[in-house]
Amino acid sequence: MVHATVALLSEHDRAFGLETVLTFSPVVNPNPARFVAAYNVRSAAVSTPYEELLTKPVGDPTWTEEQRAYYTLVPEDPRYGALAQEIIAGLPPDAQALPFAQALAVKLWLDRSMKYTTKEKHHNVPDPTADFLFGNLTGYCVHSAHASVFLWRSLGIPARVSTGYAVQASELQGASLVVMSNNAHAWPELYIEGLGWVPLDVSPEQVLDEPGEPVDEEMVELLSEMAREKPDPVAAERRKPIDWAGVGRFVLRLGLATFGAALLFALAAAYATKLWRRLAPRLASARALPRVGYRLALDLLAEAGLSRREGETREAFARRVAEAAPSFAQITTYHLDVAMGDPATSPWRSQGQGPWREALTALRAELGASVRLRRRLLGLLNPFSLFMAR
Amino acid sequence: MDSSAPTAPPSPPTPAPRITGLEGAYEVIQRLRKRLQERVIGRDGVIDLVILALIADGHVLLEDFPGSGKTTLAKALGEAIVDDLPQDEIANIRRVQFTPDLLPSDVTGTTVFDPNTARFHFRPGPIFAHVLLADEINRTSPKVQSALLEAMAEKQTTVDNHTYRLDDLFFVIATQNPLDLAGTFPLPAAQLDRFLFKIRMTHISRDSELELLNNLKRVRTGDGATAAPVTRTEILDVRRLLESSIYVAPAVKEALVDIAAATRASDRVLQGLSTRSLVLMLPALQARALSQRRAYVNAEDVEALAFYVFGHRLELAPGAGRSEEVIAACCKQSLERLAKSTLRR
């Protein structure tokens, strides 16, 4: 099992890792100014010695016939089979039937035979692999990978070409390496039962190209330092793309919570106000009684579904509800005598609690008689009936 | 010119006790109302308004058609007010039929030369009366209309540079026909402003009309009238009482000012209410409160009188609709505020 952290210097379509990748997991970008993204990779690597591989069968018994046929498909060119037979003929007799030994023999043959160069591209031919393999044997990784795969397949070994990046082990600095676009590579893999796809790359002995510029060691060190840095949380936060859907959900939830709280508060306040307005006439001074007493009468009427219309005078309202609540006319008169009368004559002094209590009791009785109980109970429960008491 | 004396001789003046309390004032109004209702059938609304105008010391302009009972109403009013100062020789009721050739002196009176004493005597015109019925006021020339104007506004008239005081009670009921306008001189806004109320009369109900025909004799002669008349002094007492005893709450005044502001701001109105119309509105409101046996003015008073007081003082924009609607719209918000104000501390 291999763990590694990949920090991308530029955008990359697909995530990549070491060997056979099992899982990817995102990590916080350690340096957003430098890297596009970063992630952890967990991959599997073959740890079995090659000697043990020799005896292992290839392919997978769970494969369907279709899958097996897919991975052993070769071009209709008899030369592949002939060459492959020719190569394995050189194997010791006890190893000739072992698939991995056969594969290894093909690889070693290619190692010896091919001449590596990126200049020979085998363009414009119907089968570049055949052109390479049965021609000048000069080419690069794509040619050798395909040649290996077709030779293996013609021996019945399931194989495929993999593409990715390959970096020389010598370029590893400590535990860091820099992968660049010229590290792009293609290599052959064969399927070994119980292990899966195992790369078995050709390494040509003859290289015609000049060796490339070695990678700047200081740069590798600098980049690897950067990649290992603790991320700056603020910068990371700033860099992180805004999750609008998440923000939307948050706002929605916050809004709902606020609305719910406000609604609860409003309900509580409304009931408290209702209760207070119901009790106020008992506690009110003689001076305030004409106001709070009348207000209670309005509340009682509102709970019974009777409220003053916009623009209607208080007297007109009293006349309108006279049938259901005859006492309300008297209450209205008491109220208006004080509210609109001459304060110098102070009619409130002469009224006192008595007549108010009587009138309110009478009003309650009248509403009880003329309005259905269900309607009154609904009104009592309605927290906002006080807004109807105008 | 047609001047008619009261048909029945006034009953001997009784030294009535002066009116001091609201109850007394209310009783006077009730008596007058009852008396008029007996004589003029099916016009209770108009009677009430005329009484309010009389109490509020204003004048009324009746807009109606001939034969609708306006003379009857004016005569009944004149007869219902007993002159308890008979020595002043002021008639209870005078009627002037306004025509295009009428002259101001026909209304105000004129000085005539007496050859016996070789001196000029002032002969008072019909304007010297308690109640003046100015019939078809828009048929006469502006000259005569303006002669009446001074009298209505200031209760005085000037003839040959000599100013004569009119009676304190002086009350004008003017009429005009709203349809038959050929050859008329429409009253200008300033003249209209002299009238506290402009009342548009409609036909009386079927039952009232039937009752009138059934009791024609009694209605005509006033025989069998049960309600006692009121005296001039009583009316003047009630007027005085109105000012001192009927309370107008600050909120009501605020509502009036707001209504005026609303008419000035409304785009349905060319010219909004004048400040004077608000000043005139107050006694009318107080009169209505008193007539309802109330010691203070309330929102209903404003609602009930707004059209009669403001209707002829507003100049509406073309296509604004009926003035009733415009005034109701302008009043609505202020009245709502007034209603809400009573619940405020």
Please outline what is shown here.
Chain A is α/β, with parallel strands linked by helices. Chain A has 15 helices and 9 strands. In chain A, α5 links the parallel β4 and β5.
Written account of the structure:
The complex is a heterodimer of chains A (390) and B (345). Chain A has 390 residues and is α/β, with parallel strands linked by helices. Chain A has two domains: 48-209, Roll (C8orf32 fold); 246-387, no CATH class. Chain A is built from 15 helices and nine strands. Chain A has a three-stranded antiparallel beta sheet with strand order 1-3-2, with no helix packed on it. In chain A, strands 5-4-9 form a three-stranded parallel beta sheet. In chain A, helix 10 runs parallel beside helix 14 (353-370) and helix 11 runs antiparallel to helix 12 (327-340). The longest helix of chain A has 40 residues, at 244-283. Chain A is rod-shaped, with a radius of gyration of 46 Å. Chain A starts with a strand and ends in a 9-residue tail after the last helix. The model of chain A has no long low-confidence stretch (mean pLDDT 84). By secondary structure, chain B is an alpha/beta fold. Chain B folds into two domains: 22-238, 3-Layer(aba) Sandwich (Rossmann fold); 246-341, Magnesium chelatase subunit I, C-Terminal domain (Helicase, Ruva Protein, domain 3). Chain B has 13 helices and 13 strands. In chain B, the strands form five sheets. Chain B has a five-stranded parallel beta sheet. In chain B, strands 2-11 form a two-stranded parallel ribbon. In chain B, strand 4 and strand 5 (119-124) form a beta hairpin. At the A-B interface, helix 10, helix 11 and helix 12 of A face helix 12 and helix 13 of B.
Regarding quaternary structure, what we see is heterodimer
Sheet-strand content of chain A, in percent, reads: 5-15%
* Biggest sheet, spatial arrangement of strands of chain B: 3-6-9-1-10
Q: Quick one: how many beta strands of chain B?
A: 13
CATH topology of the largest domain in chain A: C8orf32 fold
DSSP summary: helix tally of chain A: 15
State the shape of chain B: globular
- Total domains of chain A, how many? 2
Q: How many domains in all of chain B?
A: 2
Shape of chain A: rod-shaped
Helical content of chain A stands at 40-55%
CATH class of the largest domain in chain B: Alpha Beta
Q: What Rg of chain A do the Cα atoms give?
A: 46 Å
String of helices and strands of chain B: HHEHEEHEEEHEEEHEHHEHHEHHEH
Across the major sheet of chain A, the strand order is: 1-3-2
Separation, N- and C-terminal Cα atoms of chain B = 60 Å
